[in-house]
Design a protein that fits this description.
Elements lengths: L2 H11 L3 E5 L4 H12 L3 E6 L2 H13 L3 E6 L5 H15 L4 E4 L16 H29 L2 E8 H5 L5 H21 L4 E8 L21 H14 L3 E3 L1 H12 L1 H14 L15 H9 L6
Parallel strand pairs: 1-2, 1-4, 2-3, 4-5, 5-6, 6-7
Helix pairs in contact: 1-8, 2-8, 4-5, 5-7, 9-10
Length: 295
């Protein structure tokens, strides 16, 4: 991030209260450190207390402010309780970043006996985020101030193959966000969806082929979140994401064909177990055309 944007970020978040889910690793961890460094008081939410405390220590040693609230974001009662605890102490949240998520890479025909994959993915990615929004929204509306940032996926725009469970859960949150945005517009509450491309985080580590494909770093991902905080747009997408969305809108069959080619070029996770996963020249050429897409 350049100095101008960094100064804008400081002007925007200094002394603000920012709640970040999935704050113990990856995008959430990197974003928490950046926002704390810009003067925000960051509220760190994730499942494991020990990991959150380590992040808190890093932030405080660098001169920032952070509070820790462990929560199982799959558990609606746990979300209600942690929301109550946070609001009783801080009274309000200025910025909510719904970052925690679960991804499953598996083709639909390989998921016939795995309906639980769809259930647990939507439980965290959609229900967990919505439940947290419902808890913090009343205070935002009452104060006529607030910003909700939902981390969506480029797959929602491009219809990523092998990610039907993940993309569907993010698409549900995306649709919810669009409806909510219009409802709270008059209350000065903003809602932003970030259609994040593939990011090199622990979430993608089990898919070994991703070692060889273009990804954003967590720092680059946090740049997108910082821009969302500063500019407060309805949506942020990469150039590829915007192109994929336009392609699907005006020529859905072409979009379908391109995604089908990618689906057939790359092996499923189960099919590639124990086999070398380095890319051949065709695969390398294809991913250069679609950097950041999920395969």
């Amino acid at each position: 991030m350049n100095n101008k944007l960094q100064n804008q970020l400081i002007d925007t978040v200094k002394d603000k209260i920012v709640l970040i889910t999935g704050a113990s690793s990856g995008i959430g961890y990197t974003t928490a450190k950046r926002l704390a460094g810009a003067g925000a008081h960051v509220i760190l939410v994730a499942r494991t207390l020990e990991n959150l405390i380590e992040v808190q220590k890093e932030i405080e040693q660098a001169g920032g402010q952070a509070s820790v609230y462990p929560c199982d974001l799959n558990d609606m009662q746990s979300i209600d309780q942690v929301s109550q605890d946070i609001l009783s102490k801080f009274n309000h949240i200025d910025i909510l970043i719904n970052n925690a998520g679960r991804s499953i890479r598996r083709a639909v025909h390989e998921s016939i006996d795995r309906f639980h994959d769809f259930e647990r993915t939507i439980q965290l990615n959609y229900y967990g985020s919505v439940r947290l929004i419902l808890n913090v929204l009343p205070s935002m509306m009452a104060r006529r101030a607030g910003h909700i940032i939902n981390i969506s996926s480029i797959g929602v725009l491009a219809n990523a193959t092998r990610f039907s469970a993940y993309v569907a859960s993010k698409a549900a949150l995306d649709a919810f966000s669009r409806c909510l945005s219009a409802e709270v517009h008059a209350h000065k509450v903003k809602v932003t969806s970030i259609y994040m491309p593939l990011v090199r985080t622990p979430m993608i580590a089990p898919t070994k082929i991703y070692k060889y494909v273009p990804t954003l770093s967590p720092e680059q991902a946090s740049d997108l979140i910082a821009k969302a905080i500063i500019k407060r747009p309805k949506r942020i997408a990469t150039g590829l994401g915007r192109l994929a969305s336009i392609t699907y809108s005006i020529a859905p069959d072409i979009n379908n064909q391109l995604m089908s080619i990618g689906f057939n070029l790359f092996p499923s996770s189960s099919a590639s177990v124990g086999k070398p996963e380095k890319l051949n020249w065709v695969q390398k050429a294809y991913i250069r055309l679609f950097p950041g897409e999920h395969w």
